[in-house]
Each structure stands twice: as C-alpha cells, then as structure tokens.
Amino acid sequence: MGKNMGESSSEVIENMETFHSKSKISVCMIVKNEEANLRANLPTLVRLFDEVVVVDTGSTDHTTQVAEEHGTRLYERLWDHDFSMARNFAIAHATGDYILILDADETIEDDARVILDKFTQHHPNSLGITHVISKEATPDGALHEVVSHITRFMPNHPSIRYQGIIHEQVVDQSATRGRHSTGLTIRHSGYALSKEDMIKKSLRNLELIDRALVSIPSSPQRAYYLYQRGKSLDQLQQYDEALRNYEDATKSSSPDQPFFPELTMAYLYDLKRIKDQNRLWPAVNTALKIYPDYSDLYFLIGISLIQLQVPALDMIRQSFESCLAVGEQPDKYPTVLGTGSFLAAYNLGAFFESLKDIEQAKRYYEMAAELDYQPARERLQKIDS
Fold it and tell me: Which of 38, 42, 81, 87 is the most exposed place for a label (fewest CB within 10 A)?
C-alpha cells in the first residue's frame, strides 16, 4: 500500500491505463473449407487475442482439424444461407468484453491488439470502424486495392448483432453507442477470384439479395441492398439492369448514408462503360457538388474523357491534377488506393507523353515510381531506352 502511495501521478495514470487495456477481446469468424487460410492466419490471432471463436458451416477439408490444433473454440453449425445468423451464432459463444469480426482470408498486423486496446480506452462501449483493404477488379476492369470502411469491432452485448442474410450489417439495437474509427487495417484477399468463381459468387449473392429485398421495408436498408444487387449484376456484365438498381438505390437514400459514395461511383462507372454521356456528365456535376474533395471522382472524370474520346485536353489534365491536389483520403471516403497519388501521377505521365512533352511525362512517371508503381518504372525505362 505504501508503495502505491509513493507513486507519481503519471505512474498512477499509466497503471490505470494498463488496467483498462486488459479488456478481453474475442475474435469471431465463420468458415467453410478454409484449411490453408486458417493454417496461415490462426497463429497470429491466437497470439494476439484472448480467444478465437471459429464456426464451421460444413467444411469437407481439414478446416476443423486446423482450428482445433491452434486451440480455437470450435463450433459447427449447419449453413442455412444466412450470414447474419452464422455471425450471431459465433458472437453468442464469445466470452470477451469486445469482439473483432474477421474472415479466414483476412490478415492483420502485429500491432492490431495495441490499436484496439487504445480504442477501448478512448472510446469505451463504442462500435469500431476498420479499414478493409481488398484487391478487387474495379469498375474500370483493372485489379486495384480498394479501401472500405466497415464496422468490425464491438462491445460484446446482446443488443449488438448482425442483420441481413447477406452483406450483413452490425446494428446496435439500443441506438446509444457511437461509431468511431479504430485505426485498424484488415487486408482481405477474398475478392481476387477467377472469372468463373466470381460469376458463381455473384449468382449466389443475387439469390440471397432478392430474398432479402422481399422482407425489407425501410428505404435506407432497401437502398443498400439495391446497390449491392447492382454490384453483383456488374460482375455478370448486366450493366443496364445494374444501372436501374443504382438509380432506384439513389432515389431512396441520401448522401449521409455510408454507402452513398460507393453507390455514386458505381453508377458513374457504369454510365461510362455503356458510353451514355447524356446521363454521365449531368450525374458527374451532381456528384461534384456533393463530393468536391473526392479523388476517385476526379479520377473517373479524367478516365472518362480519355476513353470516351472527348476532345478536352485541359479538362483531362485538370482532372488528374485535381486528384493529386485532393490527395489520398482513405479515412474520409471509400477509395481505390492511388487515385489521389500514383495512379493520377501515372495518367498525367501518359497524358504528357502522348503530347510528346517528355520532360513533363518523366516528371509524373517519376512521381508514381517513387510510390512504388511498377508500370511507371516500365514507362521510364522505355522512354530512356
């Protein structure tokens, strides 16, 4: 007792912070045939967190054996085509004070526990938003890293559960808790699928989305599913129907909805894809009023002007320059990484190279190359050869 009385105030505060950081954190995941991913990722999760709850939904490989070998709390549950039910089943078996939701094909860095402990100190009893980085085939057809903002961290309380049979969302039924950024980054590899696998996944998603839409009366939630339906239709190259879904989603939602920036970009990219300039440019002007600092939007303008062969050289240059001026803002908007940096710089390099302005072209290629963008290095080598 005497020793504690002799401690400085800073030492007492430090000890209190250490005490509060001891909140127990459970990782919850649902899996099926994830033997390889679990073997790669479970050692880190078991080391960093207090428990890992794995719910298997019918694996035919060695998934359950791998989960058992790593000391997880393993449960089996018949798959009933409802992602929320499966996730809520996992959550119900967690004993931690807080829960982190992960998929088997997602990875985190070694500082994840430190980040989440700090979050629980600064935002106790709050829901936590994470940055999920996925390698996806973006609307322009290229494979890029896409950043989404998703609630994956939450207090372990019965009022907090998932809703929606697919594209499930965390809902706080008490409506009393705030949502804040955790600062945690999760890397997801599951969208880098073959064309055949992506078609199968899109057809499965469409079936579940259509089931969900039958029973969703509220406009914002319905709009969200219409947006997701459009994304699945895009994967099936059914662009006209996708556009109709995006338009219906836009009419029944508003810019304050978290998915609205992604909805806006998906809609604009499809208009570009079908070369409907009568709708594209008015929609771009509307979007600029809502998102004047969104690099993805300026990037789309530049790409659209080029691909649709609009003779507006100054606008093309200004669009990509605006991307660089705005910069990367992954904390503010869902984004394709690079639209505010190396992708914009690379396109400016290509722009000036097409005008035979090699000095300016090299300047922007070098900017992109410094950010480790390999195509820019290749262009520099070709110019110098």
Answer: 81
